[in-house]
């Protein structure tokens, strides 16, 4: 084997090797397609209505890493905001809304286990993972790609009192459906849906409602903290979603753009004129 005779050449080789090693050792992979340095960056989304900057939470690593990977692979480029409800949310991430040439039919919809953190809630600007309903998704797993940005609205104390009862009921309902002893009910609902037997399905739902009321009386009532009440009264949000949908980040710049998207004319919650994410990319966090 021939030796490197030139000391300068040897130094260059060693320097290059050290640089490569350092880049992988100091910037390890934290998930498929995601490195540690990615988790310290924000996401810039350029839309037809303007620029939005998102920041992901480290308290929801599964959702964070999945979202970073999607951005790095340009999944959100050219995708539509397909569901818009003024005073509530703007939703995007459905692959079927991309131009046909950019759709990946080999990548079926998938879910991510829910990641609920008591410090993350549905204030104005929160990022929320979309999901299917509890009857087919009792563990409240998130859509792998679809998410919403909360526009929300302001709440009064009296409205928050009502919302607390609504969240308590939702928590009880969730516990009923997650109880293995009630799994047969979900199986029945699925079978009745396939057989198009709504009357039979209603009988099962009536039983679930009865169990939900009993469970409500057996669990602690849900209450918003004084600070969270202040935020919902002064900044706004969608408090009825708390604890039942995963919040995994927030809008740090561009809420005026979110408001603009939320104000477009819609038909059955779908914008009449398409609003797209032109490009999404990672940017340096300021």
Q: What is the element string, with H for helices and E for strands?
A: HEEEEHEEEEEEHHHHEHEEE
Strand order of the largest sheet: 3-4-11-8-10-6-5-14
Give me the Rg, rounded: 23 Å
The total of helices stands at: 7
Overview of the structural elements:
36% of the residues lie in helices and 22% in strands. By secondary structure, the protein is α+β, with helices and mostly antiparallel strands. The strands form four sheets. An eight-stranded antiparallel barrel has the order 3-4-11-8-10-6-5-14. Strands 1-2 form a two-stranded antiparallel sheet. The protein has a two-stranded antiparallel ribbon with strand order 7-9. A hairpin with a 3-residue loop joins β5 and β6 (89-92). The longest helix is centred in the middle third of the chain and has 22 residues, at 157-178. The N and C termini lie far apart (50 Å).
Provide a concise account of the structure shown:
The protein is 36% helix and 22% strand. The chain contains 7 helices and 14 strands.
Which properties best describe this structure?
286 residues, alpha+beta, Cyclophilin, 2 domains, eight-stranded antiparallel β-barrel, two-stranded antiparallel ribbon, 14 strands
SSE diagram, text form:
Elements: H1 7-25, E1 29-31, E2 34-35, E3 41-47, E4 50-56, H2 61-72, E5 79-85, E6 89-92, E7 111-112, E8 126-129, E9 142-143, E10 147-150, H3 157-178, H4 183-195, H5 198-216, H6 226-234, E11 247-253, H7 255-262, E12 266-267, E13 270-271, E14 276-284
Antiparallel strand pairs: 1-2, 3-4, 3-14, 4-11, 5-6, 5-14, 6-10, 7-9, 8-10, 8-11, 12-13
Helix pairs in contact: 3-5, 4-5
